[in-house]
Amino acid sequence: MGRSFLLARIAGIKILLHWTFLLLLGFIVFSEIRRGGDAPAVLATVGFVVALFGCVVLHELGHSLTARRYGIKTHHITLLPIGGVASLERIPENPRQELWVALAGPAVNVVIALALYPFITSFAPFSESGIGNFATSQGFLHSLFRVNVALVVFNAIPAFPMDGGRVLRALLAMRLGRVRATTIAAGLGKLIAVGFVFFGLFNSPFLVLIGIFVYFGAHSENVAVQHVDLLHGYTVRQAMMTNFVTLAPTDTVQVAADKLLSGSDQDLIVVENERAVGVMTRLLIIESLRANRAAVPVAEVMSREFETVDIGAGLSGVYDHAQRTLNAFYPVLENQRFRGVIDQNNIDEFLKIRAALAQ
């Protein structure tokens, strides 16, 4: 997602702030000053936005902590101008688990709204309380209450992969199976996304962004589910690459650069006694050459931290993991012995072959 800054860790989950969020705050401050707002008004408005996104973090934590109950980790939660995104290790395949995970986020907003309600019942009716009136505690709490109610209502829209869409997919999957349910939910989600975009063109640019996010999110997740189903029953052994380039720990960076140029591999495995001991990525090779370390053995610069997969592992699981990993590339091991490599491009080629044979 580009450059993000670590804000905090809550329950072991990293809360990240995307750099574009700072642009949002800058735009809000500029708009308030342009309207003639004084310093207290600007601070109150910024404070409200921070409180709003605090509610968004709690919403995403609702998803994350519920997923944790089912053994699913959350890598991080990222705050974007259009909301928050929880990076779950995977989406539960069990429909009942997905249902509870999807409902947990909006449930948090319901709890926040109920907690705020006693403090706003004596205030002016909704129609008389402007959502921009944050300078008083009444306006601040009333607006925060309304926003949480709006988040519950908005997330109830069955636009997959939004929360409402995931609830719909989970309910459909209980009767139709995950693949068919995803196709239906994604189709409806894309239709609603187009509506978001058209409505947003005349009313709200943020709704346009949400519509685009929903449309492509629905499309990509539907494709991923279809692919996982197609790969079901196959193992890494059947798809891995056995024709690959390797390095010895004593080979120099220059040798690595020459091998990089002579083939199509972007990452080279360093092998010693049939064991993968490191990885020389394209970036590492280039950085080493820039640092005038061409004559240095790769053992001194290689990355020793890398993921591996077992030769008998299910291919659908590796594909699902690779979808959530940038530049996924894994050495394949058999009894801890190096036997091959597998990456995203390799899996994509296998998918194309299987799809062609299926037709």
The fraction of residues in strands falls at 15-25%
What characteristic shape results from the CA principal axes? globular
Count the E strands: 10
Mean pLDDT, all residues: 87
Question: Structural class per helix/strand content?
Answer: alpha/beta
Low-confidence stretches: 125-132
Task: Figure out the total of helices.
Answer: 11
The profile of the biggest β sheet is: 4 strands, mixed
Notable traits:
alpha/beta, 11 helices, four-stranded mixed sheet, CBS-domain, three-stranded mixed sheet, 359 residues, 16% strand
Explain what you see.
The chain has 359 residues and is of the alpha/beta class. It has 3 domains: 4-156, no CATH class; 172-231; 236-358, CBS-domain (Roll), CATH 3.10.580.10. Helices cover 56% and strands 16% of the residues. The chain contains 11 helices and 10 strands. The strands form 3 sheets. Strands 1-2-3-4 form a 4-stranded mixed beta sheet. A 3-stranded mixed beta sheet has the order 5-6-7. A 3-stranded mixed beta sheet has the order 8-9-10.
Could you outline the blueprint of secondary structure elements for this entry?
Blueprint (H helix, E strand, L loop, with lengths): L3 E7 L2 E6 H16 L4 H31 L4 E7 L2 E6 L6 H26 L16 H19 L7 H14 L1 H26 L1 H27 L14 E2 L5 H10 L4 E6 L2 E7 H9 L18 E2 L4 H9 L5 E6 L2 E7 H15 L1
Parallel strand pairs: 2-3, 5-6, 8-9
Antiparallel strand pairs: 1-2, 3-4, 6-7, 9-10
Helix pairs in contact: 1-2, 2-3, 2-4, 3-4, 3-5, 5-6, 6-7, 7-10, 8-9
